Amino acid sequence: MDAMTVVKLGGSVVTEKSKPLSFRRDVVVRLARELKQSHVSPLILVHGGGSFGHPVAQEHRIKGGLERADQIPGFARTVLQMRDLNGRIVEVANELGVRAVGFPGSTMFVTEKGRIASASLDAFLSCLEARMTPVTCGDAVFDRAKTFTILSGDQIAVYLSIRLKAQRLIFLVDVDGVYTFNPATQERVLIPAYHGSERLVPLEGGGQEDVTGGIVGKLDEALAAAERGIEVYVANGLVPGRLLDLLSSRKTICTRISP
Ligand code: IPE
Predict the structure, then answer these.
(1) How far apart, in whole angstroms, are the C-alpha atoms of residue 128 and residue 42?
(2) Which among 151, 208, 212 is the best mutation to test ligand 1's pocket, defined by most ligand atoms within 8 Å of the CB?
(3) Among 27, 97, 131, 189, which has the highest number of CB atoms less than 10 A from its own CB?
């Protein structure tokens, strides 16, 4: 198989985080067009939860695991809402000519204390071998220690990138990349390369509830992939052309994660 590309579509890109269950169809249409135009293959898509995942997971305290039986309908609802979002993304992708097939995270991953402990990838790998694009997502999943938890799309994207030896991993978010703080000017500055020690200014997600750790959690995951030689980028998925630039190996506004 040729060099693999993994793209994580942040929940703040594919949904409006501040409005429950608001799918950004227009954005997903444009991103699917950029994917199609790039001819990149093989390709794995992973998406986050945004307003389909975080509010319901937070309401029922799914990340902390099973404490009371009345959380179970909330767990089931989180899975259902993520399937709904996954289905919408897959549908749009196919409309634009990307041969996408959905594999929600809860159907493939079991965690132990929140970290992926096993992955049933048979069907997922068959999908790749058939030259189609599997689309998975952060999800409410079963956990060996806590019965259930929330698994982020970021952890999945890194896990799959490492396991399938991806060449490139692109995180699309709703800001231009990773920002640090310039104490002299009191301003935030975009850093073209993040090495793991810079002081961060958290910007992603506009302060809405995020049950999986926001930008700091993302960067911890991302560094693990970069340490294994994978090219890792954080870029703005809301600005037309940035994804296509990265996929075409063109210079663009973004942050490269490199240890
Ligand atoms: C979270 O996945 C999934 C749920 C909340 C069910 P992510 O952590 O990858 O989601 P975003 O990208 O931050 O929205």
Answers:
(1) 7
(2) 212
(3) 27
pTM of the model: 0.95
Residue among 135, 134, 151, 156 nearest 53 (CA)? 151
pLDDT at 186: 79
Residues in contact with 116: Cβ distance below 8 Å, sequence separation at least 6, in sequence order: 109, 110, 151, 155, 156, 159
User: Which DSSP letter does residue 207 get?
Assistant: G
Tell me, using a 6 A CB cutoff, whether residue 82 lines ligand 1: yes
Query: Over the stretch 181-221, which tens digit does the pLDDT of each residue have?
Result: 887 887 889 999 999 887 777 655 444 456 666 677 788 88
pLDDT at 213: 63
Q: What is the secondary structure of 101-131 as a DSSP string?
A: EE--GGGTEEEETTEEEEE--HHHHHHHHTT
